[in-house]
Amino acid sequence: MERSVLQGLAMFRWVAWAWMAVVLGVSRHDLAHPGLAAALVGAALVVTVADTSLWRAAPWRLLGRVPVLAELAAGAALVTLDGLARRGGTVLTVGQSIGSTWPLVGILSAGVAFGPGWGAAAGGAMGGARIVSTVVNDVRNYSSTGVLSLTNTVLFYALAGGVAGYVYQLLVRAREEVAGAQAREEVARTLHDGVLQTLAVVERRAGDPALSRLAREQERDLREFLFGSKPATSDLGAALRAAAARFEDVFGGRVQVLVPDDLEVGRDAVAAMAGAVGEALTNAGKHGGAGRVVVFVDDEDGLFCSVKDDGCGFDPAATPEGVGLSRSIRGRIEDAGGRVEVTGAHGRGSEVRLWLP
Questions:
Q1: Span 251-284, pLDDT tens digits
Q2: pLDDT tens-digit profile of 25-60?
Q3: How many CA atoms lie less than 13 Å away from 83 in the CB half-sphere?
Q4: Among the residues of 267-312, which ranges form H helices?
């Protein structure tokens, strides 16, 4: 995608330069310093050729700081010195500026390379160069039409840089979402013919009821992950009670869920918190042998949840984190902007504390 965007900018750069050369050819007799104007157009040609060569050799380097700043500097010099090349006092009233379009490529490149904020700032700076050009052109009487023209130039350049950066970010985000969906689809196809089928066979043929329940739970969790992991509800209490019921079915313990009645939580927060609590309950039953767990939720300072069990406990400082804790608990909560603490001691159970903003 980056190469396509840079190819479009390269084409725009050449078209803008060609138009600038046409303007110079048509208006050269009206210029006070046609040699200066020709030198400016020649300098723009050097930058255009250099950027085209860089695009062919290593296109991603065009979005580096040096090439972008060099093109912005060349554009600003072109816009500023345009006022010196033209007859005094005419930059706002007579003829076409030779530097109206080509500098726009540098602004668009800044937006693509550094984001919408920097793109807008680059456009504002280029608009400032346009104002400076009126000073070097010795404009003394700024009519309302002239002021409106300068304001329009500043806004146009700034808007172009900001929109370019914003649209590029949307394209990058869309590409990442498509790539993620394709990867998930590939994993789903692979697991559907392997792991899911195996779990289904284990569920049907296992003589141990606990093993059948465990296979059914694992199959359901895996299907939810592959085909949509977010809960259909925004009710955190219902999601936590469902996780507690799964713990009781699989491990036979008891879970007390304490949630404020008037709690309002977004779906993303429910998905993150319920998923993390479900993994904490699994760890309590699987590794801690817990018979009783308390899930406590509070919303006075953000969203807080405690999962405290009466299992065998462990020393978090002396025990490396497993995949369940590091990815399913800490990964979920930190991806949502929260944090996790784990406390415990041998023979005294453990507690997982979760915070979300």
A1: 888 999 999 888 888 888 888 899 899 889 988 9
A2: 888 877 888 899 899 999 999 999 999 998 888 888
A3: 19
A4: 267-286
CA 32 to chain centroid = 49
- Please return the burial class of 182, using the count of CB atoms within 10 Å of its CB with bins 0-12, 13-18 and 19+: exposed
297: pLDDT strictly greater than 90: yes
Dihedral sign, Cα of residue 257, residue 258, residue 259, residue 261: positive
Q: What is the mean pLDDT of residues 323-339?
A: 85
| Cα–Cα distance measured from residue 254 to residue 241, given in angstroms and rounded to the nearest whole number | 11
Query: Phi and psi of 336, rounded to 5°?
Result: -90, 5
Whether the predicted model's global pTM rises above the 0.85 cut: no
Take residue 211 and report the two structure tokens written for it: 């093993």
CA distance 216 to 209: 10
Q: Phi-psi category of 298—alpha, beta or left, where left has phi over 0 and alpha has psi -120 to 50?
A: beta
User: Pick from 34, 64, 161: which is nearest to 103 by CA?
Assistant: 161
Q: What are the φ and ψ backbone dihedral angles of 239, each rounded to 5 degrees?
A: -65, -40
Q: How far apart are CA 20 and CA 42, in angstroms?
A: 10
Beta carbons of 341 and 353 less than 8 angstroms apart: yes
Amino acid at 139: V
